[in-house]
Specification:
The complex is a heterotrimer of chains A (281), B (259) and C (295). With 259 residues, chain B is an alpha/beta fold. Helices cover 35% and strands 26% of the residues of chain B. In chain B, a hairpin with a 2-residue loop joins strand 4 and strand 5. Chain C has a two-stranded antiparallel sheet with strand order 1-2. Chain C starts with a helix and ends in a 5-residue tail after the last helix. The model of chain C has no long low-confidence stretch (mean pLDDT 92). The chains are: A mainly alpha (281), B alpha/beta (259), C mainly alpha (295).
Chain lengths: 281, 259, 295
């Protein structure tokens, strides 16, 4: 066989591999959209579950996930972005900085269920927060910090170093340069990172299993110390723990969760490409 | 150049026995140089002579570089600028800097010019407008931008950007203006405009410039200093250096035999 | 002026503390796992804990079947994902026309974002019946079902790290290969991929770390039988991973009981495994970064 024919065959082969990677993604999304769409109406989104969750809506799970997202954001954004500013602007190349970087890689790699155990041990039991939105948000936040830190650091580093020099030459202190020039320029990248981090948190079940998620609650949570239902956990419950569940409800719930995550994904992509085009350097 | 009653030159910046190294590499080897007030001093010589480093030391921009070592003193109006307790921000307001490449900050022309004054706490709108027009006029760019002060600065041409950068430094009313090859990226017409604005400023400011060619050095200098491999070979009034240099190395360089 | 100087000092100090906090967090996590997990060693004899039977109700806390279950599912998943992911990375970086890249990259990002439970649900309803029919197994909830789902959960990490590795191969290597008369295809497999070798290994390791820690999807599709997966057809039988065990049982145990401590001990094992994997991968990444690019 001639080598150009081998090349053509090879290209087709790696193309097929890519198809094999992407086709199931389409299949997952399409099957859930097709089967879930009919379940979704206003009632499904706005009412409490009834008849042992086999009928009614999923309002408490949606509201719960929003609570958890808000709580997580509140904690992980300042810590994650602060850490990124430190790493990009202040840290010198010392053994301690390397330790921080290793810690971030490791935090990002710790299994989500281990975060769940940690949250149970520290927040729920040791700090006596109980299974609550607060404990679950703290757990999710710690899991999200490394994502936000590494994407934000990258965004901050992408701002040309000359801007900092110019700011300093005009009498600006280091922090003034960061606050007035670097951060505004890095903001789109930072926001993208935050959204990608929160998107992961929104879909996680394992970290909230023992820290804040409730099987079923007859009413919406009122304070941060209440446990809450959440979309991913609810999907787990109605697909594995409740026999005789109508498939439509399962697919409907999966679709809502998927829509939440995909829309965050789209927002992140749009922000990134919009600001990349408008960048002034 | 400003002289005192006895006809002696008045010096703005005095550099004494300055040694400076990056790691093991010494880039300034015992520099002694007094820079006259209200005049254009050019630091010239082949690349790698330590001119840019010296400039960056005069407003302590090299503080941000790790792994360096400095001995000797630099005094501004008799004050050691490396003395402990020196307010670096206010030093940099007194000693402005223009870089080799035009580096407009992100934002509008107005925001660029007012960046320094605003950091210094300037809030009064009328005063801001005054600073804006004064410094843009001094940098000879006012007529070109006065109708579009709120346009993005990075849309200006290279030459306009560089004059904007000069205006941005002038907005702080510095006493000294350092320019590091300010025309290296510009076409001849833009270069002429930048030099023109420097010419207009020379009686009010102490200007230290690293030129991008010997020709430019000769055109703009009141006072000149020739640097070679980290050493100050010769310095003196421009006429002397460019027409009757004492050192053979200076002569070789000025007449274009090397460099 | 003085006031602003002070507030600036406060902000900068805060940022430093936040920067340091990540190291503290890793330590804190490990300390709490040890605190809740180590007591199991005084409550259960070591041979029991490292034994072949996990029957907590009867006092048997042998984690071996769970460890092997995790290893089986993970290694199988990476064995499938590595060729698939590498081929995709090669396609995206070296072969694909621009428009195909514009479609592929966002789709892989979407895959990375799909929640674990959604993939688990899909696995239960679509993949498991397919496995049962095509492979003729008694149930669709088997190790191989878990591996298939894990393959797709590992792919985004694998592809993006492998892509970076390919990207870091200097252009001169490519040019040299082509200049010597090799076809593009030959250059890819004989020059570029070998040059990116260690980056690809790193990609596989990071993906393995991801896969071994994956919980919900695996729990939903592997059948969760805590038995030694040592038969030749273990892949076609139900299996139980470490992560699934913790997730399924922690909700029902009494706090402070031996069972509770044993589940935390599994957490320690998971932590140590992923820590080791990530440390090794990070070492490769940082070492390469200093030499300019991950290869």
């Amino acid at each position: 066989m001639n080598r150009h024919r081998i090349q053509r065959l090879g290209f087709v082969l790696v193309g097929c591999a890519s198809l094999l990677v992407t086709a199931p993604i389409l299949l997952v999304v399409a099957s859930i959209v097709v089967r879930g769409a009919s379940a979704i109406d206003w009632e499904f989104l706005s009412t409490m579950p009834s008849q042992g969750m086999k009928a009614g809506g999923i309002l408490p799970a949606i509201v719960g996930t929003l609570w958890l997202l808000g709580g997580t954001a509140l904690i992980c954004i300042p810590v994650g972005v602060g850490g990124a500013i430190y790493l990009a602007e202040y840290a010198r190349d010392t053994w301690f900085t390397r330790a921080i970087r290793l810690a971030i890689v490791n935090l990002a790699g710790i299994p989500s269920i281990v975060y769940g155990l940690f949250g149970l041990g520290l927040f729920v039991l040791f700090l006596r927060l109980g299974t609550s939105i607060l404990a679950a948000s703290l757990t999710l936040a710690i899991m999200t910090i490394p994502v936000i830190t590494s994407t934000s650091e990258e965004a901050i580093r992408a701002v040309p170093v000359e801007f900092r020099t110019v700011s300093a030459s005009l009498g600006g202190t280091r922090w003034q340069g960061i606050r007035r020039i670097v951060l505004p320029q890095a903001l789109p990248g930072i926001i993208t990172g935050i959204i990608l981090g929160l998107l992961r948190a929104a879909g996680e079940t394992a970290p909230i299993l023992f820290t804040g998620a409730a099987f079923f609650l007859p009413r919406l949570p009122r304070t941060l110390l209440d446990p809450t239902m959440a979309l991913p956990y609810h999907l787990y419950v109605i697909t594995t723990q409740v026999p005789g569940m109508p498939q439509q409800v399962q697919y409907g719930t999966a679709l809502i969760l998927l829509l939440l995550v995909l829309s965050l994904n789209v927002i992140a992509t749009v922000i990134r490409s919009y600001f990349r085009r408008r960048r002034q350097w | 150049m400003v002289t005192d009653a006895e006809g002696l030159l008045k010096h703005k910046i005095c550099i004494d026995n300055l040694h400076y190294s990056y790691g093991d590499e010494e880039v300034l080897k015992g520099i002694n140089l007094d820079i006259p007030a209200r005049a254009v001093t050019v630091l010239f010589g082949p690349a790698g002579g330590g001119k840019t480093t010296l400039l960056r030391l005069i407003n302590r921009l090299n503080d941000m570089v790790d792994g360096t070592k400095m001995t000797g003193t630099i005094r501004l109006d008799g004050q050691d600028i490396y003395a402990p307790g020196t307010e670096i921000s206010s030093l940099r307001r007194r000693v402005g800097m223009v870089f080799a490449l035009p580096l407009p900050l992100p934002g509008t022309i107005r925001e660029n010019v007012l960046y320094g004054p605003r950091l210094a706490g300037m809030k009064d709108a009328a005063q801001c407008e005054e600073i804006l027009s004064r410094s843009l006029q001094q940098a000879a760019i006012w007529d070109e931008v006065k109708d579009r002060l709120d346009d993005a600065a990075h849309r200006l041409s290279g030459g306009q950007q560089q004059r904007l950068c000069i205006a941005r430094s002038l907005a702080l009313e510095p006493e000294v203006l350092l320019l590091d090859e300010p025309t290296s990226g510009l076409d001849p017409i833009s270069t002429a405009k930048v030099e023109e604005s420097l010419f207009a400023l020379r009686r009010d400011y102490t200007i230290v410039i690293v030129p991008h060619s010997v020709q430019q050095a000769a055109r703009v200098a009141d006072y000149a200093a020739f640097f070679l491999m980290g050493e100050l070979i010769e310095h003196g009034p421009d006429k002397q250096l460019f027409t009757a240099p004492k050192e053979p190395k200076t002569e070789e360089y000025v007449t274009g035999r090397f460099g | 002026m003085h006031n602003s100087r002070w507030s600036e000092f406060a902000v900068e100090s805060l940022i430093r503390v936040l920067g340091f906090s990540t190291v503290g967090l890793v330590a804190l996590i490990f300390v709490f796992l040890l605190r809740e997990g180590l007591p199991v060693l005084s409550e259960v004899a070591l041979p029991n804990f490292l034994g072949r039977a996990w029957y907590p109700t009867f006092g048997s806390f042998g984690i071996l079947p769970l460890v092997l279950g995790s290893v089986l599912v993970t290694v199988t998943a990476i064995a499938i994902a590595l060729p698939l992911g590498l081929a995709t990375a090669v396609f995206v970086r070296e072969v694909a026309p621009g428009w195909a890249r514009e479609i592929l990259k966002p789709m892989i990002e979407v895959l990375a974002g799909i929640p674990s439970v959604v993939l688990g649900f899909f696995g239960m309803t679509m993949v498991a019946p397919w496995v049962r029919q095509t492979l003729g197994t008694a149930t669709g909830l088997t190790a191989i079902t878990g591996s298939l789902i894990l393959t797709y959960m590992a792919l985004p990490t694998l592809i993006s790290v492998a892509e970076d590795a390919l990207d870091a191969v200097p252009k001169s290597y490519r040019d040299a290969g082509l200049a010597m008369g090799a076809t593009q295809w030959q250059t890819i497999w004989r020059v570029i991929v070998p040059a990116a070798r260690s980056g690809i290994v790193t990609a596989a390791m990071l993906a393995m770390g991801r896969a071994i820690g994956e919980t919900m999807a695996v729990m939903m599709v592997t059948g969760n039988a805590a038995r030694m997966p040592t038969e030749w057809d273990a892949l076609l039988r139900p299996v139980r991973t470490m992560t699934a065990t913790v997730a399924a049982e922690m909700g029902e145990v009494a706090k402070g009981s031996t069972h509770y401590h044993a589940l935390f001990a599994i957490g320690i094992v998971l932590f140590v495994i992923t820590f080791a994997i990530n440390m090794t991968a990070a070492r490769a990444i940082f070492a390469k970064r200093r030499r300019g690019g991950l290869r």
